[in-house]
């Protein structure tokens, strides 16, 4: 079981590395600069660590509320101290609300 989890983590990190690499390539081409593979690797590790932290926080918020599933409320709670992110997420939630929702 541990081997399966380690394999899954490596596949996810590889996919993240590929995605970040593509984004970095697009942006460096626009700017006319170069990025080393080491930069992409370091950025990938930083993003992976952030994903781990965010996922643990979201899981804790849901668990504290007595739920086993993360929902929009948990995400909004996580974003509360980042005004820019909070406003973007609130606009997104409002835009995607179902017509019969009242909250």
UniProtKB/TrEMBL annotation:
<dbReference type="GO" id="GO:0031297">
    <property type="term" value="P:replication fork processing"/>
</dbReference>
<keyword id="KW-0238">DNA-binding</keyword>
<protein>
    <submittedName>
        <fullName>Histone-fold</fullName>
    </submittedName>
</protein>
<dbReference type="InterPro" id="IPR009072">
    <property type="entry name" value="Histone-fold"/>
</dbReference>
<dbReference type="GO" id="GO:0000712">
    <property type="term" value="P:resolution of meiotic recombination intermediates"/>
</dbReference>
<keyword id="KW-0227">DNA damage</keyword>
<dbReference type="GO" id="GO:0071821">
    <property type="term" value="C:FANCM-MHF complex"/>
</dbReference>
<dbReference type="GO" id="GO:0006281">
    <property type="term" value="P:DNA repair"/>
</dbReference>
<dbReference type="Pfam" id="PF15630">
    <property type="entry name" value="CENP-S"/>
</dbReference>
<dbReference type="InterPro" id="IPR029003">
    <property type="entry name" value="CENP-S/Mhf1"/>
</dbReference>
<dbReference type="GO" id="GO:0003682">
    <property type="term" value="F:chromatin binding"/>
</dbReference>
<keyword id="KW-0234">DNA repair</keyword>
<dbReference type="GO" id="GO:0046982">
    <property type="term" value="F:protein heterodimerization activity"/>
</dbReference>
<comment type="similarity">
    <text>Belongs to the TAF9 family. CENP-S/MHF1 subfamily.</text>
</comment>
<dbReference type="GO" id="GO:0003677">
    <property type="term" value="F:DNA binding"/>
</dbReference>
């Amino acid at each position: 079981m541990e081997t399966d989890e380690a394999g899954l983590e490596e596949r996810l990190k590889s996919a993240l590395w590929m995605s970040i690499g593509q984004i970095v390539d697009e942006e460096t081409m626009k700017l006319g600069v170069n990025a080393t593979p080491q930069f992409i690797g370091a950025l990938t590790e930083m993003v992976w660590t952030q994903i781990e932290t965010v996922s643990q926080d979201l899981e804790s918020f849901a668990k504290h509320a007595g739920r086993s599933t993360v929902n929009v409320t948990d995400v909004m709670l996580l974003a509360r101290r980042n005004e820019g992110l909070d406003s973007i997420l609130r606009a997104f939630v409002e835009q995607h609300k179902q017509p019969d929702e009242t909250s």
